[in-house]
Amino acid sequence: MTTSAFPSRSGGHLIADALITHGVDTAFGVPGESYLEVLDGLYQHKEDFRFVICRQEGGAAFMAESYAKLTGKPGICLVTRGPGATNAAIGVHTAFQDSSPMILLVGQVGNDFVEREAFQELDYRRMFGPMAKWVAQIDDAARVPEYMAHAFQIATSGRPGPVVLALPEDMLAATASVAEARPYRAVQSHPGNADVARVRELLAGAERPFVIVGGYGWSREAAKQLREFAEANDLPVGCAFRFQDTLDNSHPNFAGDVGIGINPKLFARIKNADVVLTIGARLGEMTTSGYTLFEVPTPKQTMIHVHGDPNELGRVYQADVMIAAGVAEFAAAMAGTKLGEARAASRKAALAEVQADLAAWRGLPPLYKNRATPAKLNLWEVVQTMKRLAPKDSIVTNGAGNFATWAHRFWPYAGIEHCDKSQLAPTSGAMGYGVPAAVMASIVAPERTSINVAGDGDFMMTSQELATAVQYGGAPICIVFNNGMYGTIRMHQEREHPSRVYGTQLVNPDFAKYGESFGGKGFTVTTNAEFDAAFAEALAFTRNAKKPAVIELKVDPQDLTPGASLDTITENARKAKGL
């Protein structure tokens, strides 16, 4: 069939039609004059397409990235050129480090103005090159279906990640008669029979095996197969940094999270393992405790590493067995595996130790256990209240900061097997992620409770997106840990330069009134009794009113980590430095 047989459409309308072709029904963004033709094209699909208009491009990009995590589908973000693109860059970087499929569509100056430093002009290939899987510019409207199909294909296949497409204004206005592409189909490698046999052999002979899981691509079925494999063979399973919901945290085989502030006993257990099987997780700085969990480049443990990207295998650690495969494909290959009874007794005993270690780690932490007088607001008790009152399938989000430790260590994330994702958090360590992620989740999955755990500095970076929640009927609960400082930086400051406080203090608004200003509900909490009442009321309000709630916790600045107070950190640093 000749191209003339197809209707003539503008480049902008071709972009909009391509989104529909590839199954997109939701996108996030901030409108701009540079891509008006795309907006006009989407107008034709307004009955079956939702464009969530955000208040800042960083928030929009975070929503697109977290949407990919929550739904398993690529997150789509539309922004204007120049400032719009630079604001959205934080979400692209997060998608890259978190291996989340995302497509950023960016307006661009027309080709007749290019290379003149025209208004808001940027070279997106140079800007996004190091933090995206592919960056391209569509200069010919006739090639829109081709470029869009390739964007979806590369964003979702292998190790997923972000793709950036620049859309020049003159291309969007130009017309072309061209056929649509077929819907994309993500491609993953499968493990070979010999590799699977070698994995079984090594695990069967292991006396102290350990499994680390994480990364992108875990379906409910794959998570179920992982759980059954662990159960059948008494394997302890740790979840990589901020992929803590890969296995239900209440499951007897769950050993804890393998990331920042790892349980020292869990660290020692992995250190002393004879075989470590890692499925889907990157063995990066956070998961390996600053590359100290394993020796570089040749670990003393027998290491098996399964990852969708061959470039990730052997990048830091030379594993004994390296398998380029998707997590679902590997889980399916291992389904039904029974490793034999030779090591069954020792593994059962080890699993009992794992559970005892985890229970102790989740108990009342030293910060409160060693205190002479009870704290007015005990943050461990805050999480216990959340566990008691919130639904098990609640989606818990956070950005970056010490406050996140309370959720990571003490909140029991539901497994993907039961309810898809329940943890939305940036492995990139991006502050400001939690509010947009919670807003997105409450819009896309309104039947589930969405809870954002935030620090005061973290919350203020993207809290304007509460307006987006109100506009689209989103109803997240934001719990703001207000200690009047950038707590993580203050902690490191005290360790490196004790008592020399500079550049880490904050003056904050009244967060309860701030929440109310959006039409939501606001609470100020200074005691645990007040939090119990506020959280119960916030749950009822968000369910019924379909509007957000903000609970401000007046946190004692001393309560910096579960393990130590601020003064203790300072005192220890002063002693270590002989001050």
Oligomer: single chain
Question: Order of strands in the sheet with the most strands?
Answer: 3-2-4-5-7-6
How would a textbook summarize the main sheet?
Answer: 6 strands, parallel
Mean pLDDT: 95
Describe this structure in words.
The termini are far apart. The strands form 4 sheets. Strands 3-2-4-5-7-6 form a 6-stranded parallel sheet, with helices on both faces. The longest helix is centred in the middle third of the chain and has 19 residues, at 344-362. Helix 1 packs parallel to helix 6 (144-156). The radius of gyration is 25 Å and the shape is globular. With 579 residues, it is an alpha/beta fold.
Gist of the model:
By secondary structure, the chain is α/β, with parallel strands linked by helices.
How are the SSEs placed, and which strands pair?
Layout: E1 8-10, H1 11-21, E2 26-29, H2 36-43, E3 50-53, H3 57-71, E4 75-79, H4 83-98, E5 102-108, H5 124-128, E6 134-137, H6 144-156, E7 162-168, H7 169-173, E8 175-177, H8 193-204, E9 209-213, H9 220-233, E10 237-240, E11 254-258, H10 264-271, E12 275-279, E13 302-307, E14 321-324, H11 327-334, H12 344-362, H13 366-369, H14 379-389, E15 395-398, H15 404-410, H16 416-419, E16 423-424, H17 434-444, E17 450-455, H18 456-462, H19 466-471, E18 477-482, H20 487-496, H21 511-517, E19 521-525, H22 528-545, E20 549-554, H23 566-576
Parallel strand pairs: 2-3, 2-4, 4-5, 5-7, 6-7, 9-10, 9-12, 10-11, 12-13, 13-14, 15-16, 15-17, 17-18, 18-20, 19-20
Antiparallel strand pairs: 1-8
Helix pairs in contact: 1-2, 1-6, 3-4, 3-17, 9-11, 14-22, 20-23
